[in-house]
Amino acid sequence: MQHGIAFEDIYNFDETGFAMGLVATAKVVTRAEMTGKPFLVQPGNREWVTSIECINSTGWALPPCIIFKGKVHIKGWYQDKALPKDWRIEVSDNGWTTNQIGTRWLQNTFIPATNGRMIGKYRLLILDGHGSHLTPQFDEICSQHDIIPICMPAHSSHLLQPLDVGCFTPLKQAYGSLVENKARHNFNHIDKLDFLEAYPQARSEVLKPETIKNSFAASGLVPFDPERVLEKLNIQLKTPTPPGSQSTDSAPKTPHNLKQLQKQASTIKKL
């Protein structure tokens, strides 16, 4: 491939979020200021947790980076036997990723996990245009380690990013099923420890080699097949209609009376 990138050296990374807090079957409809389907949420306090995921085109996934809302790390998180030893946990003010977290993920997760698997000289890293992916520090580290970051166009991740195309939806469904199962056993609140218990199980059910490879194929990347994406677009090419000529209407005509003469004179003055 171009730049000496082999199929084994193509990666896609992205973030996905999960809501923790009260477990309830009731739904609340938010204000209907948006167009389309109303947004439904569960009642009660909600806390957001983000998972940074990265997959390889040959069918394997890197260890994730979990981002909790908080100021400090809690010792109990790392004592949970369900948490794999190679997983990384970060904290932020709102449970979302930041520029610093994105840079640390690149340095401490992506580079170490992929160094021993390189086939060619370069690694292709497919990502969206999130601000934490576009910092000078992120680009500099990529350049130093022969990583080529490719940002997909805005609003196209549902078609072009393998994680969005074939992984995140079943991952959320699997996690949601585990939460619903807890609710049936009278658990009415999901906290960080509950998440760390459920998420590894959901992940192992979904991020299997066949699912990952099918996601790269469905996005037209590996094997390279742009038609897989183009056929999903509802594009109708039309021959543009040339703008109507104004020469007929604007051409001066011989006035036949005083009123027409005055009107034409006024028009000429305005022009």
From TrEMBL:
Residue ranges, annotated region (Disordered): 237-271
InterPro entries: CenT-Element_Derived, DDE_SF_endonuclease_dom, RNaseH_sf
GO MF, one annotated term: DNA binding
GO cellular component annotations of the record: nucleus
Any Pfam family hit: DDE_1
DDE-1 domain sequence ranges: 46-216
UniProt-recorded name of the protein: DDE-1 domain-containing protein
Taxonomic lineage: Eukaryota, Fungi, Dikarya, Ascomycota, Pezizomycotina
